[in-house]
Each structure stands twice: as C-alpha cells, then as structure tokens.
Amino acid sequence: MPAYWLELTVTAAPEAVEAISELMSRYVQGGVAIEEPYRLLDDGQAPEIIPDAPVTVRVYVPENEDGSEARTRIEEGLWHLRQIEVGDIGELTVRRIAEEDWATSWKEFYHPLHLGRRVVIRPSWREYTPAPDEVVVELDPGMAFGTGLHPTTRNCVLLLEEAITPGASVLDVGTGSGILAIAALKLGAAHALGLDVSSVAVETARENAAINGVGDRFEARLATLEGAGEEPFTPLPSNLNILGAEIGTFDLVLANIIARVIAQLAPALVRATCPGGALIASGIIHERRALAVDALTAAGLADIREVEEGDWITLIGRRPTNPMEGQ
Amino acid sequence: MAKKIKAIVKLELPAGKATPANPVGPALGAQGINIMQFCKEYNERTAAMAGDVIPAEITVFDDRTFTFILKTPPTAFLLKKAAGVEKGAATPNKAKVGQINRAQLREIAERKMKDLNATTIEAAEKIVLGAARSMGITLAD
Questions:
Q1: CATH number, residue A245
Q2: What is the ipTM of this complex?
Q3: Partner of A178 for a Cys bridge, out of A7, A99, A140, A205, CB 3.0 to 4.6 A?
Q4: Do A40 and B61 count as a contact with CB atoms less than 8 A apart?
C-alpha cells in the first residue's frame, strides 16, 4: 500500500460526466466518485439536483509511478474530450491524501455520548463505566436514524427521563435505530412498541434491543399510525401496516419524526396516549412549530411545553384525564 | 427520523465488490459514516449483477446515518458492452473503437431513461449518442 494517494478531481458540465467517468475509470482501481450539486427542499429533508450545474468527478491513484502514469493519461484523455466539445470540462486538480485504514478510521468519530442526565450512548468499540444512576445504551451508527448526535434525539431523551414512570408502556413512532425505546426501557419502562416505515429500521431496532438485553420487552413493527397515508412524506412500502385504535393506549408516546408527519398523525398519536399519559413530539424545525402545536392541540393534547436546540423543537404534552379539559 | 441531509455522493462501483479502499473510504470516510455497513449492504444488493458497474447514490444525514439507492449502470458502461469493446477511444476525436446499431441505442436509452435528464426516448437517445461519440463509438446505419 502506498503511504499517500492522489485525489484527481475534475469539474465539468453534466453532459460530459459520463465520458469523463469512463475515461478515469480506465486508469483506477475501485471506482469513481461523482458529486452533483443539489439544493435542499422541505426544511432540508429532500434534495433536488440542480440541472446544468457543474458536476465534480473524483478518482484516487497511488502516489507512485503508476499513479503518475494514470494522471498523465487522464489529462491527455480530458484534452481529447475537450476537442470534441462534449461540454465544458475544467482542469484536473490534484490533492495528496494520506493512506488510512478506512475500514476502521470512521470509528474515531464516535465516543460515549451523554444524553439527558442519565442516558449514555456507547459505541460497541468504546469502554465506558457508568455512574450509579446512569443507563448505558450500546448502539453502533449505521443506516437507521438515531445515533444520539442529533439535537432532536437529545431533547427527546431529556424529556423522556422526566416523563417516564416505572413499569410504563411506551409507543415509539418512527423508532429508527430504536434508541429512544431502548433508553425508555433502560429507564424503567415495562415494554415498548416501536413502529417504522423502513424495514431497515425495524430490523436494526430489533437487533439493538437484543444487544441491550431488552429484546424480550421490545416489539418492532413495519407500521405507522392512521393519517400517514395522506400525502406520505416518503414513499411507503406496500406491506406497511397502518394501525388504528386496536393498538390501545400507552403511558408514554414518542414521535421523533418531522413537523408535517406529526401534524398528520396528531389525532392517532393523542388517541394512542392513555388519559393522563405523556406525548413527546420531536423533529420539528423552528418554522414549522405552529403546524405541529396546532394539530396536537386540536387533537386534544394539553399542557404543551417545549425545549429547543438550534433549529429544532421538541414538544411534550399530556392527554387530559377528563376529555373536556383539553378543549 | 428528524433528519437533515448533509451530503450526497454517487459512487460508480463494481457490483458485489465494494471495499473500504478507494474510492469508498476517502469519499465517505470524511462523512464519518459506517463504511463497512455500506460495503456489506452494497455488495449484498448487487451480488446478482456481478460484472456490471452499478452506481450507488448515498445520502448522508446530519446524525451521520445514511441511506443509498442503486442507479442504472453508467451509459458508457452499457455502450462498451453493446459495442463489445473494453474501453473507449483514447482519442475519440480521431479514432473509432466500435459501433452500436439502432436497436442497441434504443435499448440503452430505455434502460437509462429514468436516470437521465430526458423526457422523451428520443431525447434520451441523443444523450446516449453524445456519450458514444465521446468514446469513439459510432452508430451503424
């Protein structure tokens, strides 16, 4: 293995990218990385590729004779491509990067993470000795959302610690990695039901619950609540269950999703909260606060409070024991 | 799932053979995502397509989780396969390395249609032909 690599980058018009990628792929091992410029829509949730904007194509060659040869060939190839006018092609730029053990170096980003007052998220490759009142959730980052690095997850844990009662039943809508449900179980909940519209999330949440020794008290289902079918935010899988009143009620309901989905699900979320129980709704970007608060209030949630971090708001409210109270 | 997109990267990789080395490591490593999981998932999903180049479009979220979708093989890859050549011309402005016929052109355009910025099949064919020209592959009459 060489100690250094050369990152060869060229920026070009979209119509030239296929030809450049083909050219570069001839001289490298592994493959080609392409970055198309995009803009974010819907509060940063959905990307849109900007048409006609220059695209970046990148490959890596070793810093040795073979690499220099590849670089020369690529530069020559780009020159020829420019002659047939396939679209604007910029100059090749070169950056030297050190060889790393990429299979493990990403792990350096992760350390035990304190959420709320008592919850600690520990990656499997880190040691941590908890203080007497702390609970440790072992969780490795992957494809299911919820690593503890996001403000919404942190705020949910903060409010969860406050709202949880020993022996409580918990519903976690949009469970992702299962982080919140597992934290709830470790903080004293008796059992938890986690729902998600992603099968990757359902499987990951199940695995994480088992790793944390709470698998027997946690159920993960590929499902959501009534209301999600209307203008779904993400395409919903065809085998998704849409659950109604039959799931009963829970002492604590968690929904760390996004404002629009919380508004859609508001009646079902409040209905799933037992009278006197708490509902924590999160993933609400500042500008969409009213959308979520209004929908939850209309659905009968009372005593709504909030915590804020950065752009994000987390709400907690109570379902009144007397139905007239919330009116 | 209160996620915000942090980065989007497309990687053109050999199906079933992604490794944490280049370009996956440096392209995704800086994002701090679980590279081993990406390679494993990519290889599982593309195992049946061995021999093809299958691009993966990876979306990284702000808590360093990620998701990815698979795209159709690059036009250049499909053109080389159709023309039966290993690589494009080093000097496409002069040398011609191979030919495809109209039926092959239509087939590639149809396959690529959903990933191309084209609304009609004719427009998609035009893009495919442009890529062919840049590789020294011509259309047989």
A1: 3.40.50.150
A2: 0.89
A3: A205
A4: no
